[in-house]
């Protein structure tokens, strides 16, 4: 077995929907080889409090403290007391938040797929990564056009590495009403972009008018085949 030291970022540990979260430090034989880092910004909705923690073998924590105590000192006392209260009495609030996020996730991902933006169902956190490969645009181009034309902000998937270049990052941490409005704006935008791409990549023998009468999911699959030659 490789003697690896694993840094495990578990900031979204409380926000898993379909299966219980298992910490890497809980895996047999990995406790002493894990540096667990987490915080309160996601699971306890304390974004902006800048309060985090780490759990690691004592010798590693001592080395970390040598740097930390002279660079940052400590979190404000007020934030520390708030975190204690969250840990002691915030479990019901976390569960309520999870149920709310689950409802938004289910609505948002289903709606994205219905309008033709292929999207897998995420198992945790509050982000969806629909594919925009069928449009012929980069994730940066798609995000910029969507912001300028429809005033909907998404993150370019390319910012998460080369593998995300054909996707966009959407947060469903907003209210259900805002998500519904976003879908209402994204749908016509996506259709316009597809239409523009298809005008330059139309297969012989297929009329544009007929193409756009087909179900959007079928349109998406055809566009993907055209673009990548699948």
From TrEMBL:
Top-rank taxon, per record: Bacteria
Aminotransferase class I/classII large domain span: 2-185
Keywords: Aminotransferase, Pyridoxal phosphate, Transferase
Names of required cofactors: pyridoxal 5'-phosphate
GO MF annotations, alphabetized: pyridoxal phosphate binding; transaminase activity
Coiled coil spans: none
Pfam families in alphabetical order: Aminotran_1_2 (PF00155)
Annotated GO biological process: amino acid metabolic process
The protein's name: Aminotransferase
Family as reported in the entry's similarity comment: Belongs to the class-I pyridoxal-phosphate-dependent aminotransferase family.
């Amino acid at each position: 077995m490789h003697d690896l030291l694993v840094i495990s970022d578990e900031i979204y540990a409380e926000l898993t929907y379909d299966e219980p979260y298992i910490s890497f430090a809980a895996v047999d034989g990995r406790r002493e080889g894990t540096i667990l880092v987490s915080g309160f910004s996601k699971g306890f909705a304390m974004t902006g409090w800048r309060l985090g923690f780490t759990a690691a073998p004592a010798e590693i924590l001592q080395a970390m403290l040598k740097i930390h105590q002279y660079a940052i000192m400590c979190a404000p006392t007020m934030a520390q007391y708030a975190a204690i209260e969250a840990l002691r009495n915030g479990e019901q609030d976390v569960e309520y938040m999870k149920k709310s996020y689950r409802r938004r996730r289910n609505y948002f991902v289903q709606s994205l797929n219905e309008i033709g933006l292929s999207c897998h169902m995420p198992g945790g956190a509050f982000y969806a990564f629909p594919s925009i490969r069928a449009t012929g645009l980069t994730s940066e181009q798609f995000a910029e056009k969507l912001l300028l034309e429809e005033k909907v902000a998404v993150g370019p998937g390319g910012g998460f590495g080369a593998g995300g270049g054909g996707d966009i990052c959407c947060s469903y941490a907003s209210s259900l009403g805002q998500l519904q409005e976003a879908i209402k704006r994204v749908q016509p935008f996506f259709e316009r972009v597809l239409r523009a791409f298809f005008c330059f990549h139309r297969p012989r023998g297929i009329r544009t008018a007929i193409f756009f009468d087909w179900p959007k999911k079928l349109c998406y699959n055809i566009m993907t085949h055209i673009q990548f030659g699948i």
